Amino acid sequence: MSQIIHIKSVPHLHQLLQINAPSHPLISIVRHTKDMNLEFGDVTFNSDLYFISLKENIKGHLKYGRNNYDFDQGTLVFIAPGQITSTNNEVEPDLGGWSIFFHPDLIRSSSLGKTIANYNFFNYDTHEALHLSKHERECLTECVTKIDKEIRDNFDSHSQDLIIQNIETILKYGLRYYERQFMSRTAQNRDKISDFELFLKQYVNESLQDNGIPSMEFCGQAMNMSGKYLSDLLKAETGKSLLEHIHSALIDKAKTALVGSDLPIGEIAHTLGFNYPQHFSKMFKSKTGVSPKAYRKLNAKHSY
Questions:
Q1: Contact in structure between 281 and 265 (CB atoms under 8 Å)
Q2: Consecutive 10-residue runs of the chain (304 residues): their mean pLDDT?
Q3: What's the rounded Cα separation, in Å, for the pair 126 and 143?
Q4: How much is the pLDDT for 165?
Q5: Residue 226: Cβ within 10 Å count
Q6: Angle at 97 between CA 150 and CA 86, to 5 degrees
Q7: Strand 27-31 vs strand 43-47: parallel, antiparallel, or unpaired?
Q8: Residue 50 CB contacts under 8 Å (≥ 6 apart), including other chains
C-alpha cells in the first residue's frame, strides 16, 4: 500500500518540495526546477489546495483517478481540493513550467469563491488535460507573472483583489481554450458521442428499471472519462448537457409507454427509475409542457 500524504497548506507543500518558504501563506507560484524534491516514491496525495500546473518538459506520468497521464509539452492540469493524485519514482523534474497552489480561504469571501465550482475542468481526469499552443501558454504565463509580482511586492489594499482577478482570468482563458480543444477534435469527439448515445439507449432499454437513472459519474466511467468532461463535450458538440441527454432518453421511453400501454403512470415512473411518481410527472411536464396524463389523453387516438 502506498503512503498517503495530506497536504494541508501552502507552507506544508513548500516543505515537501524542499523549496524556500512561501511569501504568502495562502498562495504560491512555483517555477519548476531540477532542485525541487519530487522523489516521493509510491505516494498518494490528498491536498486541501487548488492546483493549476503548466507542464512543459517533464517526462513520466501522474496517476489521477482511473488513468495514467503522460506529461507532454504545453499541457495544463487543474485539480481541486480533496482530489486524490499519486506518483512514482519515474517522474523527472519539469524545467519549463509553473504551478499555482492556493488555499480556498484566499478566495472564500470573493465572487470567485462563489463561482469556482462552475469551472468543470477542476473535475476532469488528468488525461483530459488542456493542450496549449505557444500563444496560449504565453497568455497564461503573463497572468502568472502578475500574480507572482503581487505576492512578492509589498502588500497593499489592492493586492488581494488583483491576485484573485488574475486567477479568475486564467480560469476564463481555460474555458476558452477547452472550447477550442473540443472544436479541434470534432471527428474524434463525434465517435465518442455516438458511443455514448448507443450506451445510453442500451442502458435505458435494459438496465434502467433495475439500476435507476444513471449518474453523471456513472456515464463518464462507462465512456472512460470524467462525468464533467463528458457533459462539457456533449454540450460543445450537441448543445445539450449530459443531464439533458438523459432526460431526453427518459422522455422518449415515457412517451412510448404512455401511448403504447395502459400501465398506471406511477408504474411507468417506477420502470423509468423514479422512486416518486410526482418527480417523474414534474420532469415530464417541464420537458413537454403537458402532464403524463394529458399527454396520454392527447395521443390516445394513436395508441396501439
A1: yes
A2: 83 91 93 76 84 73 44 75 70 71 95 93 80 90 95 86 96 92 75 88 89 92 90 88 92 90 91 90 92 86 48
A3: 22
A4: 97
A5: 25
A6: 110
A7: unpaired
A8: 79, 80, 81, 100, 101, 102, 103, 104, 116, 122
What amino acid occupies position 95?
L
Integer distance in angstroms from the first to the last C-alpha of the chain?
60
For 130, the 3-state DSSP assignment is strand
Find the length of the chain. 304
Specify the DSSP class assigned to residue 214.
P
The pTM of the full predicted model, rounded to 2 decimals, is 0.69
- Order across the sheet with 98-102: list the strands: 27-31, 98-102, 50-55, 75-79, 130-131
CA distances from 147 to 29, 96, 237, 286 (A): 8, 18, 34, 45
User: Cβ contacts of residue 111 below 8 Å, gap of 6+?
Assistant: none
Closest C-alpha to 173, from 297, 76, 61, 252: 76
Domains and their CATH numbers in the chain: 3-131 (2.60.120), 187-302 (1.10.10.60)
- Residue 59 CB partners (closer than 8 Å, separation 6+): 71, 91, 92
In whole angstroms, give the CA distance from residue 260 to residue 254. 10
